[in-house]
Amino acid sequence: MKRTRQSAIPLYDASRETLQSRPVRKRDPEQPSLPFDPMPDRVEPCLALLRPTPPEGPDWLYELKWDGYRLAIHIEPKGVRIITRGGHDWTHRFPAIADAARKLGVGTAILDGEAVVLNKEGHSHFGALQRSLGGRGGKRASTEAVFFAFDLLYIDGHDLTKTELAVRRHLLEDFLDGTVGAVQLSDEAHGGGTELLANACKMGLEGIIAKHRDRPYRPGRTGDWIKIKCIQSESFMIVGYEQSDAARGGIGSLLLAARQGDGWVSVGSVGTGFKAADAEYLRKTLDKLKTKKPVVPLKGKNYVFAQPTLIAEIEFRGWTDDGNLRHASYKGLREIQDNAAVFDMAAISKSQ
């Protein structure tokens, strides 16, 4: 049965009009030729800083926050490369995206964006993306994933990383105008940040991203990009588990830790969100990582401690006064190649 590729749902205002950006201007065909810049082998990604509320004003543009894998597509004279955030070549894992990129009709380009799998409501779904790749450590290629491009870093010999975002977005919209399928444009949402966040949360989406229009593309969490989440979701290190004869797979809960300086600090545990197959895989893998010395100072009769190797994506509703996660739920394991950043407790004070 042939699958019909879905599109992401747009944000709407009260009148159900699509909240979407409006073209600023057409590209000037008489723009003088610029000197050619060498194409970089890799660009260190710009990352979004977590904030509790969106910034407001004309200096900021807004997009949906995608729930998938951050990727860069390198379109080169000899072919296409798909590079993960950590710098690994995953072209073979996303053949449909690579094929669509080859057909974009450009000599050279670097697109920054996110690979997602959309559910029937048009929402990006991290678990569905993982399953399409065969789970953590799986070797399957995803034919369902769609790449949503939100930045253009290089095109036809011109390095755009020192150019302000407004110009990069204009060129990206020109470049991907009307494209559908495995490579699509991540639309800019039109409206105020508070309004857009409320709409995103009402629609069950993860949140929004705010980006400063006048800033160049700078690696790391500089504050040029801000992420605001409806439901918080971060990566934490699994440092053990609590045994349970009553629970499926023998795991009652996973013990979690975050970074604190050069070490680790406990942030509590998670006992929901994983299915029997998840629990069985986790127990088998964590048993191979057993250690008598816990990474964080925890004591429990049924605790099994593990070396800090597995990184879990966890949804949660906030923090308790003693620094534990509230209402945590397991979403899945992050891939090593995805270079998932384990949550740093310093981010809590920065976001307040």
Quick rundown:
The protein has 352 residues and is an alpha+beta fold. The chain contains six helices and 18 strands.
CATH homologous group name of the largest domain? DNA ligase/mRNA capping enzyme
- CATH topology group of the largest domain: D-amino Acid Aminotransferase, Chain A, domain 1
Distance between the termini: 50 Å
Give the H and E element order. Answer: EEEEHEHEEHEHEEEEEHEEEEEH
Question: What is the general shape?
Answer: globular
Strand segment count = 18
Helix content: 10-25%
Q: Helix/strand/pairing class, anyone?
A: alpha+beta
CATH first level of the largest domain: Alpha Beta
Work out the radius of gyration: 21 Å
**Oligomeric grouping of the chains:** single chain
